[in-house]
Amino acid sequence: MSTVAADVVVVGAGPAGIAAAVRATEAKRRVVVLDEAPNVGGQIWRHRSVGTLGADARTWIDRLSRTNAEVRRGVAVVDVIVGGEAGDITVVAERHLGGVDVIRTPALIIATGARERFVPFPGWTLPGVTGIGGAQALLKQGATFRGKRVVIAGTGPLILPVAASLTDAGARVVVVAEQAPFQAVRDFALSLLTHPETLLQAAIYRLAFLRTPYAMGTWVTSASGTDQLAGVAVANARTAWSLPCDLLCTGYGLVPNVDMARFVGCTTADGAVAVDERQATSVPGIFAAGEVTGIGGVGLAVAEGEIAGAATAGAARIDPSLARRRQALRVVARRMERAFALRQELRSLARDDTVICRCEDVGRAAIASFADSRQAKLYARAGMGACQGRVCGPALELLFGWQPGTVRSPLEPARLSTLSTAALAGAASSAADPSAGS
Amino acid sequence: MPQSSVAAVTISADGRSVRVPAGVTVAAALLDLGTSAFRRSVSGEPRAPLCGMGTCYECRVTIDGVAHRRACLVTVAEGMHVTTADGAEEAPA
Amino acid sequence: MSARRADAIIVGAGIVGAACAVALARDGLRVLVIDAGGAALGTTAAGMGHVVVMDDSPEQLALTRYSQSLWRAQDDAVRAASELDWCGTVWVAEDEAQLEALPAKQQLYRDHGLETEVLDETTLIEAEPHLRRGLPGGLLVPSDAVIYQPAATIALLALARTMGAEVLQRMPVEEIVPCGVRCGADTLRADVIVNAAGAAAASLTPQLPVIPRKGHLVITERYPGFCRHQVAELGYLASAHVMTSESVAFNVQPRSTGQVMVGSSRELVGWDASMNRRVLGRMIARACEFMPALADLVAVRTWTGFRPATPDKLPLIGRWPDVPGLWIAAGHEGLGITTSLGTATLLADLVASREPAIDAAPFAPDRAVTAGVH
Fold first, then answer.
1. Which of A8, A424, B17, C181 shows the smallest number of beta carbons within 10 Å?
2. What residues of chain C lie within 8 A of the CB of A419, using their CB?
3. CATH homologous superfamily for A2-115+255-318?
4. How far apart are CA A176 and CA A192, in angstroms?
């Protein structure tokens, strides 16, 4: 176990975390960045070779590599201890390959990003069904989908670049099903004409060129196959049809990863961490930036990261150009949220025997009569498994309107030895920790 | 899959010795080897990567004798032993 | 609501309240169970779920032994839903002194009709291969079990409903009055009121000598077969017995899911439910001393809970003399899951003025009150 001190700890090395780390180190702060993945970049800037990335991503990753920020990859933050006095924060991380890092810091930036929202439907547990971002991530990890017949079904602008990437990789995308109606997508696309940053139109044109149908107001109702996906059933408001495929990529928007923020007591609103002008959360010393404060895309994540990084370094004022960019991008994000709101039909795809909690194989009927997510968890074990409710939690909210339950330690499954060594170290170094009383 | 220009490593997948490109994750390597069941669910269903980013825990396999490792977060390494749900080479600890 | 008419109102839908509902309904009483939250969501949910015989005192041995026999005879549907697993317990001796005490313990159990097996260094490892080498021995009690107590509670309530009982959830009882309970503006009346409110029992009956004794637990990922029995150190009893401000003891359980639950800790810190990482760390370290391989198992969740502790480690079962119609089924410390059935049967016998199967006097709720006068 190693115990070190830092001026700023950044959790998450995606766009927000990288920008935050760069800004904080530029202000002479000792920064430690922690990320689970083997490489920096988060989901959107995931790469194995920097050369495959766009200019913006390359620039930021390059800037980070030229700072003296200490980037620890392949580590999961399992505990965060907030001391009794402001600025007394201990972060405990477990290395995937063994070992524990304990870092004490006065400032923590939570840049944990977002995950995909999954809507349960019959067959969604079959091998061959992945997230849309999941397929993109696997592709970037080196999986080859060459020659596979792919159906993409979900919502939001993210799905089009993924369709393009899969096509580039030699997969045959047979249909892109966007659940939002044509009018909503068109209005949103038109509203973006003044925003050159978006990839949306470019992707639409490319797909048209490749003759991939982009079916709006269309969604997948079920997937079939025995031990592997063989086909899907698709529907729109007028009709339903089936088609064979090898890979179904599905994802219905993004969910901010607020678990860590909720664990340390940060106020959340509408499922995102509430922050002020300086990206400060309700807990002194703890900041949040990027998708965790609300889904807004890579540009907004970078702007928020820059502001948070500068704020932890004690910047007296916020760079006005950054603040303006942040504001403009938040407006776009709200528009996008409205345009791609989930249709009612998606809430009733799951049948009685459709698994809702994949970790514990809990079907819809086993929990439908309960009052809240705590009952579903205790009585039927929904949300009790390894993913700690990260997949089924948003689904339970969508299907039944249940709010997620209390976040408990460890933040990620962790070895018992990690909990004991870190717990002992954390408590010993944090005499002011109110939870270490008696 | 492995091109001659791409560096490769040898791993053992369910007891089978295979060459896979260096730098890919265990999840990517297993998918390209045609693996369907990374793990078996509580009720015995085959499961494979869903999220690709460490959230869903569906891609859990045994790596070098350690059970419940997320294949999407681990890069392949020379000599690595990977066991999926239906592999019998190494039982979980 | 005020029109509702019951013979017995049980306050608390934890496992003790649920068992009491079954026992009283079986006697033909119209039973109403009221809970401030939901079934099994309080004291019951936080526990380990063992059905064990414990011999801290002759009275405890009598009640746990009796309760265990009732679990064995329990309704099939309840047993199945409870995931009852008769995995047995291995009590581990850490030193020669503990080892030498085992034959006497074995004789005591035999006197109560329980066959056990004294294990030596070799047979101990055969029974639990992940225990560290060099431990001198232990005692195997094959008749102990592990259950999933939230499911058991739900099943008991369902059984009670088939006998006419009614369950009201999310209804906080604000006050227990003579032959009634007050919920907001309503007072619900019954001849029999049972305070089975777990760790919160003393908030409704303030003179009850029940205090919260905090504990931490950890549960792992699934490792089927990692341990075969519930395994605990013999020092556990000492840890549980002495009302020190803080103690930890080695105690692991194989769950029906293949998960391993790791305990235990005891603290007296009032109602502070926050995780005490130092105690959690000590608790895990203690467990790893006995089972080094635990260190590499992956934990998915930790939590804290409160045991309803009494000064003499015995539950409070029987009439509460100060309030007409009030009966107590509370103060079960860490044994409420085991003793829920014995408690309920004992209580129903007392309510019906029947002779109980075991002596009820040691559990009289006013015994501590009386003792306090001297």
1. B17
2. 218, 280-281, 284, 299, 302
3. FAD/NAD(P)-binding domain (3.50.50.60)
4. 21
